[in-house]
Amino acid sequence: MYAQMVTSTGKGVQSLEDMSPEERAFQERINRGEKIEPKEWMPDGYRKNLIRQIGQHAHSEIVGQLPEGNWITRAPTLERKAILLAKVQDEAGHGLYLYCAAETLGVSRDELLDKLHSGDMKYSSIFNYPTLNWADIGAVGWLVDGAAIMNQVPLQRTSYGPYSRAMIRICKEESFHQRQGYDIMMKMAFGTEAQKEMAQDALNRFWYPSLMMFGPSDKDSVHSAQSMAWKIKINTNDELRQKFVDQTVPQAKYLGLTIPDENLKWNEEKGGYDFSEPDWTEFFEVIKGNGPCNKERLGARVKAWDDGAWFRDGLMAHAEKQSAAKLAAE
Amino acid sequence: MTAASTTLDPAVYADWLMRLGDNTLILGHRLSEWCGHSPVLEEDIAMANTALDLIGQTQLWLGLAGEVEGKGRTADNLAYLRDASRFRNVLLLERPNGDFGQTLMRQFLFDAFHLELLKSLQTSGDPRVAEIAGKAIKEVAYHLERSADLVIRLGDGTEESHSRMQTALDDLWPYVGEFFVSDDIDKAVADAGIGPDPADLKAAWRQTVDEVLRAATLNVPGEGYVHKGGKRGIHTEHLGFILAEMQFLQRAYPGATW
Amino acid sequence: MKKEWPLWEVFIRGQHGLNHRHVGSLHAPDAEMAIKNARDVYTRRNEGVSIWVVEANNITASSPSDKGPLFEPSNSKVYRHPTFFDIPEEVGHM
C-alpha cells in the first residue's frame, strides 16, 4: 500500500505468557480496542514500526503529488484544472497530517525528509510510473486512490491514536478523489474514439502497478502478523487486493473498458474474481530504484527541498529577530 | 445593467473583461506550477489556495466576457482557444516563476494593485461586475495579507533572503508601470461608469508598496523604463509557452468534451 | 543555518458558540504565521470561524502514568450526576 514492504522489527508475535508484564498490559489494551497515545509506554518495536509505516505513508503522499501535478498545467478545462489542483493540494495536506502523526513518536519532519531524500526511506512504488495522457489522471484517481482507500478505511481503526485520527481526516477528504477520477474516466470512455483509446491505454498501464500497491502476499509473513497483532495493519495484502479487484471489475465493465488480464474470471466458490498476479520482479526493481520515474520523482523532491532552504531559513531568522526584539523591549 | 454600460461597444467591453480574466488566469496558472515543488508543505498548500481563488475568478470574468461579447463563447473557449495575441494580461504575470522569492514578489506587487482595482469595481455601474468584484475582493485581501507578510519577513530575514528579495524587486519593477497605463479601452470603460481609470489607482498602490517594502528593508527602485504591451496583446515570449502547455489537449483533440 | 520551524498545535472553533477543538498540528516560524498556515491547511473545506495556535512545546500534559490517581477518584462521586437522584414523576420535569 502507501506503506509497502514495511518489515517489522519484532521477532514475530509472542504469546501473552511470553511477554514482559509491560508488554502484556500493552497488548491487552490493544486487544480491548483502546487507543495508544503519545508518551504512553509502548514497545520499542511498535514505535519503530509506526515511524517507518507512517513516514512511508507520508512520503507517498508528497511524492504522489508529482505524477498528477504534472497535468495541472495541462488540464483541459478551467474546472478540471481547479479540481485537480485541489486534489493534489489535498495530498500535500495528507502528507502534512501524517508527518505530524509521526512526530508524536519522537522523530522530526526534517529527519524523516532527510531519510526520504537519502533513499533510506521509501515511498509507494506506484508513483514511479509516469502519467502519459489525460486519462491517466482519471486512472490514478479511480485505481490508485481506489486501492489506497481500501487500506486507509480500515486504518482509521488502527491502535495508535494520532495515526488513527490522521486517517479519519484523510478518509473524509479523500472521498472526492476517487470519484473525480472515475468522472474523468467516464468522460474519456464515453467520448471520442481517441479519448476512449486513451482511457484503455491508461487502464492497461495502471492495472498491474495498482495491484502491486498492496505489496506481495504476506499471509505467511511474521512481520505482518506482528503488525496485525499491534493493529497497525488491519488486513492482509491478499485480502485487500482481492477486495480491490472485486470492486473494480464491474466499474471497468460499466466504462466498457477491458482489464488487461486473460485469466480474470468470476470464481463462484470463493465469491470473488480469479486474476493474474502482477510481475513481482518488476515490483522489486521499482522498489530498488529502477522504475520508469524513480530518479525524476526523488530528484524533484530533493530539488524542492534544497531550493527552498533559503526561504525556510529566512523566515526562521525573521521570527527569531522579532522575538529577540520583543524580549529586549520587555 | 445600467444605461451607461449599454452605450459601451460590446467588443470593447469584452476586451476589457478579458484583461481581468486573463490576469487571474495566467497568474493562477503560474502559481499552480509550484504545486508539489514548494519549499515547505504549509506553503505548498497556501499557494494552491491562492491559485484556486484566481482560477475561480477567471471563470467568472471570462464567463462574463463571453456573455458580453455575445458570440456564444464560454470561459473555457476563451481560455483554451485564443492565441497569445488575443490575451490581455499584463506582462508581469507571465514572467517565469523564478525562485520562490521572485514568485512572492510578483504576487505582492500584483496583489496590491488587484485589491485597489477590485475596491473600485465593487461600485461598478454594471452590477454583474460589482458582484464578481465583491466576491473576489475577500480572496484578494487575504492574498495581499499573505504576500506582503512574506515579503517583509524574507526582506528582513537572512542576508541571502534579503538579497534574493531585492533582486526579485529590481527584476520585476520595470513591469509594474503597465498596471497604470490607461488606453482607449480603459477610458471608454471609465466613461461608461463600469471601471476606474487605472492611473487613478496608482497612489493607493504606491502607498501600500512603499510601506511594505520599507518594513522589508528593501530599496524601492526609481521610476525607470516601463515594459508594456500585454493589455494590447503584445506579449513576451513566455506567454506562448504557457499557452502551448495549457491549451494542448483542447488543440490536439478539437471538439472533445472533458 | 538549518533550524526546523517549531511545531504548533491548532485548535479551531467550527461554529459560533462551540468550543475550540484540537484539529491537528503544523510547522511555522512564529505564531502569526502558524495562524495563517492553519487557515490554509485546516480550513480548506470551510471548517472554522476562529483559530487558536499554541506552540507544542508550551503544552503541559498530564502524565499517562498518573491516569489512575487523576481520573479514577471521580468515578466514585456518582452524586455529581443528575441520575443519582430519584424524583417522583408527579413532580414533573427537573
Structure explained in plain terms:
The complex is a heterotrimer of chains A (330), B (258) and C (94). By secondary structure, chain A is mostly helical. In chain A, 65% of the residues lie in helices and 2% in strands. In chain A, strand 1 and strand 2 form a beta hairpin. The longest helix of chain A is centred in the middle third of the chain and has 29 residues. With 258 residues, chain B is mainly alpha-helical. Chain B has 11 helices and no strands. Chain C has a single domain, classed as Ubiquitin-like (UB roll), CATH 3.10.20. Chain C contains 2 helices and 3 strands, in the order ββαβα. The longest helix of chain C has 12 residues. Chain C is elongated and about 70 Å long. Chain C starts with 6 loop residues before the first strand and ends in a 23-residue tail after the last helix. Chains in contact: A-B, A-C, B-C. Chains A and B meet through helix 3, helix 4, helix 12 and helix 13 of A and helix 2, helix 3, helix 4, helix 6 and helix 7 of B.
Structural class of chain C: alpha+beta
Low-confidence stretches of chain A: none
Quaternary structure state of the chains depicted: heterotrimer
Would you identify the CATH H-level superfamily of chain C? Answer: Phenylacetic acid degradation B
Mean pLDDT of chain A: 94
Q: How many independent structural domains of chain C?
A: 1
Reading side by side through the largest sheet of chain C, how are the strands ordered?
A: 2-1-3
Query: What global shape of chain A is seen?
Result: globular
CATH top level class name of chain C: Alpha Beta
Strand content of chain A: under 5%
CATH architecture of chain C: Roll
Order of helices and strands of chain C: EEHEH
Radius of gyration of chain C: 21 Å
Largest sheet of chain A: 2 strands, antiparallel
